[in-house]
Amino acid sequence: MSMSGIRLALRIARRDAQRTKGRSILVICLLAFPVVAIALGATLYDRFELTTEERLDRDLGTSDAAVMWQYDGLIEQEPDNQWLGGYPPQTDGPYVEPPAHVFGADPVAELTAILPAGSRVVPYSSGEGLAVKTPSGIGKIDWVAFDAADPIAEGMYEILDGKTPAAKDEVLLSSAAADRLGLDVGDSVELTEPARSLKVTGLVEDPNALKGEYMIGGAETFPGAATKFLVDAPGPISWDQVTALNAKGVVVYSRAVSLDPPTIDTPWSYVDDGASAETVSLIATVAGMVVLELVLLAGPAFAISAKRRSREYALLSANGATAAQVRRTVLSGGLVLGSIAAITGVVLGALLATIAIPFIEPMIGQRAGGIRFLIAFTGPLALLAVLTGVLAALVPAFTVARQNVIEALTGRRGVTKSRKRWVVIGISMIALGGLVGVGGAYSGTEMLLVGAAALAQFGLVMCTPAIVGAISKLGRFLPLSPRIALRDAGRNRASTSPAISAVMAVVAGAIAISAFAVAERSRYNDNFGTNLPQGTVMANVEMWPGYDQQTGATLKLPADAEQQLTEAKAATEALMRQHYPVSDIHEVVYASCVQEAGMREDCQVTAVMPPERTCPYSDQQFLTDEQMAEAVDNRYCKANTTDWAWSSADLAPGVLVADGNLLGILSNGEGQDLANAKAVLDAGGVVVQDPDYIVDGKVTVALRTTDYNSEVPKSTDLKTVTVPGYAMTTGSLRQNIFVAGPGALDGLETEQETKFLMALTSRMPTDEEEERFTAAFDTSGINHDFPGAPGEGGTLQVYVDVVKQDSGITPDTIMIWVLAGIAGVVALGATAMATGLAAAEGRKDLGTLAAVGAAPGVRRLLSLCQSGVISLLGAFLGVLAGLGAMFAVVWTLNVQFGRYYPREPLFPVEVPWPVLLVALVVIPVIAMLGAGLFTRSRLPVERRAV
Amino acid sequence: MSIKYGLLALLERGQAYGYQLRASFEESTGSTWPLNIGQVYTTLSRLERDGLVQALGENPQGQRPYEITMAGRAALATWFATPVGDTERPRDELAIKLALALSTPGVDITTVVQTQRTASVRALQEYTRLKNRATGGDDISWLLIIDAMIFRVEAEVRWLDHCEASLLRHQRTRQETSTAETEVPDQAPEAVPTSTGETTPR
Amino acid sequence: MTVLELRDVHRTHGAGEAMVHALRGVSIAVQPGELVAVMGPSGSGKSTLLNLAGGLDGPTGGEVFVEGTAISQLSRRSLAALRRRAIGYVFQDLNLLPSLTAIENVALPLELDGMSVRKARAVAAKALDDVAISELALRFPDEMSGGQQQRVAIARAVVGERRLVLADEPTGALDSQTGESVLRLLRARCDAGAAGVLVTHDARHAGWADRVIFLRDGLVVDASGPLPEAEGLLEAAS
């Protein structure tokens, strides 16, 4: 093809783009949108991914290296040692840690001696958790002992306000800490342990840790051994010098070595094996889906433009243009618009990134690096946009080039017949996708699943024209406007199907992902959730004897231990009542073995499962795959991860002693079932959840010891008692919690101790209440060790936690709404575009309608119906496809989780109603309202003199 | 066209006597060309003289049919085969009238054109009405003749439109030249509506 | 009663230098049973006149009355109602909505006017029968010939009680035989009592009218009066 041919095609394409500005801008927006998004993301990532120089400036300031004297003896390190670590050399023998280096009186001098002559050494140390007074109580902030005034610090910290401290009781305060403590330059930080006051001379910021809450003072302000030293050497510190220092046990983070690391073979160094084949194909598939979506969105615009200009192209043909030349003209349109979109997208993305960075920095707590644009990434991205443009123009190009010149010139409008071949291919692809999906599910290969989804999606896209055609036949029974809209959609299948496909694809994606997220969340809640009332404050009270430091022997609890425990409980209760909206406090009492030396460890009180109903693996800790498979199939193997107490606010397994009232709260039971249970409790019985424990209306409770030292753990029941039993059918008592009535355990020698204080609240405690409580609790001295007399000692510990299940806005919920939002925006865009195109196509028809006497509103109604047809059809197909995909994924995962023992909760099939609502109701309604709003009600032929 | 060939053509169908011929003639020309019986007999005797027809014996009703001769058939065939030449048509009075109106002082040629056109259109309307009343396809020959006249008048109307347009353009050019010569520039030529001013509802 | 009357109607497009006079003082009245042809060269204002008559366009001067109502007094909504109740349009081409079947196209003005679908279809079926194409009722325009489409258009133009039929070159895209049958239908409609306006540049088509009006440069330059029941034409033609 000649150069002039290309130029002619490009010229026609450019003129056409100018002539049909609205449509061109639409296509450009569509093609540019993902480019903007990706370019924005890539640029942001690139800006926050510091270059080595930038990182070195922030880590080392202007120094040449940071060093740490770790061991006395040879160690090895990575060349770019940014975490300042070293490792003993690998040997074949057992691991021997060399002795740690202990500094003498003057570490600086010690180091200067082994460093290159003329080096200056600046010590640096840091620590966590200094208690300070906050506006609402007591909080903790970190500290740094470092001479921030030293020129070596430049780049590490930026003084925002004020000046560096000069005296012992002066500090720099990080801006985040200043915000939290409500302090400014000139105010004082009040430390509580021990109490002292430090004057704030300035505010400071670490570009790597904007959110860090810390003070910087001199070595006298925060005394302690320096953790590392910054070295200002006369010249760069080379790798040879580093290895020489390594031989003495000093690890080095050298600027020169990091900038130009030697290639050495270290066995421990992190090997970046690059992107795996799976990741690459996953990215390729996702990129393919995005391109498909874009082609679907932009395609109709080209199709409609090609169709409207079919006469023009026919004239080209009649004047001797070959099919290839006509094709090229249409493709040039894609090229022109794609190029504009690519450039706009990349530039806009970079621009947005620049604008966004000041807002993102405080969020992620890090300053961005220097201004730069990721050409290596955005270049190919731009090319992709151009390619997408050309791809979108491809089908119209071929259709137009093949068109019948006579028909086009005489303006006959042919009926688009859906090609049977497409339907056959489409259905085959869906079927194949299904097969691949099943394969992926059984083999657990995610890649296959993604591929299956893509295949099925492509298949659906190919079937869409036929579906649209079939549905448009239903128009017969509809009122005028929807009838016309539906039939138009069918007639202009070439432009409506891609739009419907686009809506379908994005809705399907959103539904599938969010459905999975919902399932995941509810599985998480099943697993880690608790059935205690939300907002309940649980205090877990523990006391245990100490160990003798020298002999390792268990100490005896002091005589007043019980007294102290009672006091601690009372104090905790008082604090809970003071700070939380407590309505009632219950003590949750557990039965435990009577304490005898060496007995308590492996003795527990538990209900006894009749031997014939016992799971053979109940005591075993680790199961082989075969054993797991057997256990999964055994009806008596009931161990479930949901039975475990996942937080200190959760009830521990065991036998607890309670009255009917407490049973109601703990079990959540109701009605006759609860009444029966209470009756059994009152009669000195035991209430359980699992009916298998009950034999002839009775439950056996035992003192059981388990020997974990034998090959297979072996349990022995020391003593048993059989009492009336009742298995609850309502509520959510866990199967490993047994509730014994008063006196039920009299036959056993048990102790009863309060493990929990359960404070029922009238509402969910606020974060502020929690903070105030914690401040009060931490300073109350409730938690303490008690040394007591010689040979005595122990620890008393109370954990207080609020029962709070993630509800309302959690990250998952946010993600679902974001997805729904994206789906909504894309679907709206596609719908609006297709409606606009349909309107452009139907202009003549509107003229006829006007002449026949359609009221002005009919045009609006027609547009409204057209967007309704497109968005509803797309959303409906998308919901079908999405739920299908979601079921496939959930099923796949359940097949896998179903193989584990102890059993794990499976993914429930839950419909993501928000997304469904958005897809099926909100999007169509907005699209229709928008169409109604933005359509001029005046009919095109109508014109009146003023 | 002459009556001569018309009668010959009728006799080609079969022998006929005078009154029959007149009736057939009128029927096939859709009564647009009335004949009197005298014309028929005069023509017939001329044809007999030239040996193109021959008279047959009187029938019992006293009518004297004629039939076409071989020579007559040959003459008829020649007539059908020969196109009607321009010179054989009657002189176009209208054309001559317009040409004269143009050069005769005191005569407004546009009025002449409009008067003529009104008459022509009136004729068209009447022919169309005739045609509209002629129902059924048996009368095809008559319809053809009406159509012939309709098309002729249509051509005349189109010619009149053309004349009018030409005359107007001619007058305007002359006006412009004269105004230019007499140097009266503020007499702008009348605005000509262009087709862009029209909106066609489609 | 006069079905359509244009009283000294002016219509200009644009303003200032670019102002174009499409019509400058045209007065026409069309009576029931009358078919009036409007002739004239391109740009003479024929189509503007038709648009004004149909209420698709408004005059800059003068007034248009349809069945006695001055249309400049009407809202766009009432105008639309007037169009679907009183006025039938037939255009040169693209008369029909491609998404509707023949019978649905004919029923269109009735449905737009709020008649039930069932009833509208019954009326439309009758109208299609009148133009002798009831067998095409369920076809889409794409599946019909040009002449058949134009028949459907005429059926639609007269369906219901409408008394004014406006035709803009209705035979434009058709061959002369088919065109003639369309004109014959139009004529028959007018003979049955409708008032018709036929815009054409073809004198032969104008021949179907009772009166012919010549437009040039937005003015009526010539008008043939109502045709007398004269039989003397035959002599004139010999």
Brief sketch in words of this structure:
The complex is a heterotrimer of chains A (946), B (202) and C (238). Chain B is built from seven helices and two strands.
Helix content range of chain B: 55-70%
Whole-number mean pLDDT of chain C: 82
Overall number of strands of chain C: 10
Radius of gyration of chain B from the CA trace?
Answer: 26 Å
Largest sheet of chain C: 6 strands, mixed
Oligomer: heterotrimer
What would you report as the Rg of chain C, rounded to the nearest angstrom? 18 Å
Low-confidence stretches of chain C: 230-238
Which CATH class of the domain at 4-95 and 163-225 in chain C is shown?
Alpha Beta
Global shape of chain B:
elongated
Overall pLDDT metric of chain B: 74
Pfam families (chain C): ABC_tran (PF00005)
Protein name (chain C): Putative ABC transport system ATP-binding protein
Keywords (chain C): ATP-binding, Nucleotide-binding, Transport
GO cellular component, one term (chain C): membrane protein complex
Q: What does this molecule look like?
A:
The complex is a heterotrimer of chains A (946), B (202) and C (238). With 946 residues, chain A is an alpha+beta fold. In chain A, 49% of the residues lie in helices and 16% in strands. Chain A has an 11-stranded mixed sheet with strand order 13-16-17-15-18-14-12-19-11-21-20. In chain A, strands 1, 2, 3, 4, 5, 6, 7, 8, 9 and 10 form a 10-stranded mixed sheet that branches. Chain B has 202 residues and is an all-alpha fold. Chain B has a two-stranded antiparallel sheet with strand order 1-2. The radius of gyration of chain B is 26 Å and the shape is elongated. The two termini of chain B are 47 Å apart. By secondary structure, chain C is of the alpha/beta class. Chain C is built from 8 helices and 10 strands. Chain C has helices spanning 46-53, 76-86, 102-112, 117-130, 146-158, 176-191, 203-206, 233-237, and strands spanning 4-13, 20-30, 35-39, 61-66, 69-70, 87-90, 164-168, 195-199, 211-216, 219-224. Chain C has a 6-stranded mixed sheet with strand order 6-7-8-3-9-10, sandwiched between helices. Chain C has a 4-stranded antiparallel sheet with strand order 2-1-4-5, covered by helices on one side. The termini of chain C are far apart. Mean pLDDT of chain C is 82; it is low at 230-238. Classes of the chains: A alpha+beta (946), B mainly alpha (202), C alpha/beta (238).
